[in-house]
Amino acid sequence: MTNMQFLQGNEACTLAGIAAGARFFAGYPISPATEIAELSAKLLPRHDGIYIQMEDEIASIAAVIGASLGGMKAFTATSGPGFSLMQENIGFAVMAEVPCVIINVQRFGPSTGIATQPGQGDIMTARWGTHSDHSIVALAPASVQECFDLTVEAFNLAERFRTPVIVLTDATIAHLRETVSIPDTVKTVQRARPSGPVENYRPYAPAANQVPVMPNYGDDYILRVTGLVHDEAGYSSADPEVAGTLVNRLINKIEKYTDELPEPEYAGPDRPETVIISYGISARAALSAARRAKQQGRSMGVIRLRTIWPFPEKFITDICRSAARVLVVEMNKGQLLREVRAAGITEAYGLNRTDTRVIMPEEILEGGVLLE
Amino acid sequence: MNNLKEIDQYLAHKKLPHMWCPGCGNGVILKHLLLGLAVLGIPREKAVLASGIGCSGRAGDYVNFHRFQGTHGRTLAFATGIHLSNPELTVVCLMGDGDCGAIGLNHLLHAARRNINITAIVANNLNYGMTGGQYSPSTPEDSLTSTSRQGKTGAALDLCRLAAEAGANYVARSTVYHVREMHKYILEALNTRGFSMVELLTPCPTYYGRYNKIGDAVQMLEMFKEKAIPLNKFQNMEESEQQNHFWRGVLVRKNNPDFYTRYRQKEAVQ
Amino acid sequence: MKEWQILLSGSGGQGLGLAGKILAEAALYRGLHAAHSQSYGARARGGYSDSGVVISSAEIAFPLIEKPNLLLALSPEAYHKNARSLDKDGYLIYDTDIDSAVQEKNARGFPITKAARETGNERGAAILALGIITGLFDIIAPKDGERAIADNLPAQFIEPNLQCYRRGLEMAGQVTPGDHTGTAP
């Protein structure tokens, strides 16, 4: 059974979190993400969950990580300034392999910027905002329905990979109302649990899929967690072998399994002359532009990314290989464009806006024509 | 009280000896924290030691029960989540004075304000030891450190008074010289429901003692013996005299309901 | 039916966000697709405010207003800001109180705020305008509009807002048919 509701993106993200099993939310008020906190505060206690408003975003993500280690699926929601503050602890969650979800409702920046206006400027912050080498999972919904679907997916991936997952929405989608189909139950993933003798358990010994199995604090299996480089038993170590092996595993446990992440969606002819690559609200304009291009007899296809990180390089290069023109449409100065070019599509162009206005379908049609 | 057998179950023997400098008090603090758990009969799997970053933060490597070490300064915020996700756990946060009193001060105030059911132990060695002896908020005024060669400018911060003012249920201070008192305070803190804090002055002969020409660990302990005086005596001192002393004693002992209890009561009303 | 792009504009406090949501939900009751967006920020503080509703019989690719083909202007600022963006065949409904020399060809003025005040519910101006829009254009059914009002308001506010909505329907009924009525241009 499903239930149709007319919801804002922020509401859909909250309902998705709860449907996916989240029982803990810690956050700090910030526009345009506040509705997620407000609705979580209202709904979580009804599910024996907890909402807590922390003293800042650093503490918010810290409490989320703590709650996840205690066995609750946990999330927070924020926007640019708060997302910046969270970066150190996101890196900690990567290093200590703590499942959690961060919903970043992107707003116009840098700095305080314009709190109520949208942007897509946090693509690289999501990828490299925390220091040093690591992998990260980031998803980008383009509709209110996807705010629901991809937030559920974010929780599942966080549990599957034992890693923080970032959901990148924006101020427009956050406050947009659309019809959402909410199923009575959603498919949820629970983190793999240890079994076997308690004495032999080593919290960071990888399973076959390179992800260690994880107990809760309070279980008989003893959990040792640190952000220091640690050995498989969870004790800190300064051994170069241990350090190198750990960092490689943290990256490979995600990068070698990218076929488990939401694939991009392609809409258009088999061998398009023009390919538009986009995500989030900008992808909606791209899809609308492609519809009109078709009516005009032009050959335009749209690749809409749902997973931003790890970047779905193969999917994109396969479609773009035969295209005469590639246009990357995003509300920033070309953050994803660099990635497309780095993937070998060196002739890709950017269609960008950084003035708080959402990119319109007509602009994309014109941009496509200019390239032709 | 000195029976190491009692704390055997909590120690990661393979990881000993510890990395702390000769004369450092961190080992004494860890021992009495573990003794406290033993006296109260808290099983290994129901305790979490959450430590910070810095010398005392390494304590987690020497225990064989649930251990957490997050990012610098944020221990109490992480521990807030750990506690709320499983209120049955005994969550003890072991932090240094820089960790808890500078970068993490905000979290101390708010953990105390919420009256979160956590015990905070602050190992105050009067400087940043791990990074080479820089001054911290709790370094006494005029002290010499690697970043105050002419003497520290600015008064020392009294973390206990802040925590008490913010709403903690239990706040006490002692030194590693006053072992029996320290032991008693740790036990009282662990027995408190709501936020409890024990600040413990501990010698750093490697940096603070050396820079300030106090001498070795024994002489530093003698300094604590002489300068750490009971709270009521301290309160009767002139301010100028107070600056040359530390107080010790129990500052607050209350029984206000903790955050989790009040939150569940409120939500049940809805 | 082609796609309706309806921009409800005026000042914060006139209930434009809610009116947009009600309009969109009434369209959904009719089996149409709808998307609703609204401006954030000064909305609660009396500055310019708007709310956009896209309604279509087909799935909506782009959910925001590109070029409105139905514009509601309840304040002078709203009129001056948006009139130029109106589709050349689009309709303009404005409050005669805005006291501007309206030149758009498919324009029709109504004393919207005044009429809302007369019902005793000045804050129901946008809902009253929704009644006018319901009466003039084949977008939503009056019963769906009433149902959406009842679904979106606390009990004590339903009746005063239904009064505004019905007053709007009446005002639309006094317009000569064929004058300013129609489907999406």
UniProtKB/TrEMBL annotation, chain A:
Q: Name one GO biological process term.
A: response to oxidative stress
The organism's place on the tree of life at top rank: Bacteria
Q: Which residues form the signal peptide?
A: none
The residues covered by the Pyruvate:ferredoxin oxidoreductase core domain are 273-345
**One Gene Ontology molecular-function label:** oxidoreductase activity
Q: Which residue intervals define the domain Pyruvate flavodoxin/ferredoxin oxidoreductase pyrimidine binding in the entry?
A: 18-239
Q: Which UniProt keywords apply?
A: Oxidoreductase
InterPro entries membership:
PFOR_II, Pyruvate:ferred/Flavod_OxRd, Pyrv_Fd/Flavodoxin_OxRdtase_N, THDP-binding, Transketo_C/PFOR_II
Keyword Cytoplasm recorded = no
Q: Which CDD domains match?
A: TPP_PYR_PFOR_IOR-alpha_like
Q: Any stretches that span the bilayer, and where are they? A: none
- Kindly give the NCBIfam families that the UniProt entry links to this protein: PRK08659.1
Protein name (Swiss-Prot/TrEMBL): 2-oxoglutarate ferredoxin oxidoreductase, alpha subunit
Automatic annotation (TrEMBL), chain B:
What top-level branch of life does the organism fall under? Bacteria
GO biological process per UniProt? cellular respiration
- Give yes or no: UniProt keyword Plastid: no
What would be an example GO MF term here?
thiamine pyrophosphate binding
The Thiamine pyrophosphate enzyme TPP-binding domain extends over 53-199
Protein name per the record: 2-oxoglutarate ferredoxin oxidoreductase subunit beta
* Glycoprotein in keyword set: no
Keywords, alphabetical? Oxidoreductase
- Extract the PANTHER family matched here: 2-OXOGLUTARATE OXIDOREDUCTASE SUBUNIT KORB-RELATED, 2-OXOGLUTARATE SYNTHASE SUBUNIT KORB
Task: Fetch the InterPro entries from UniProt.
Answer: 2-oxoacid:Fd_oxidoreductase, THDP-binding, TPP_enzyme_TPP-bd
TrEMBL record, chain C:
Q: Which residues form the Pyruvate/ketoisovalerate oxidoreductase catalytic domain?
A: 12-170
Q: Which Pfam families match?
A: POR (PF01558)
This protein's superkingdom? Bacteria
User: By its UniProt entry, which InterPro entries does this protein fall under?
Assistant: 2-oxoglutarate_synth_KorC, Pyrv/ketoisovalerate_OxRed_cat, Pyrv_flavodox_OxRed_cen
Which keywords are on file for this protein?
A: Oxidoreductase
What would be an example GO MF term here? oxidoreductase activity, acting on the aldehyde or oxo group of donors
Q: What is this protein called?
A: 2-oxoglutarate ferredoxin oxidoreductase subunit gamma
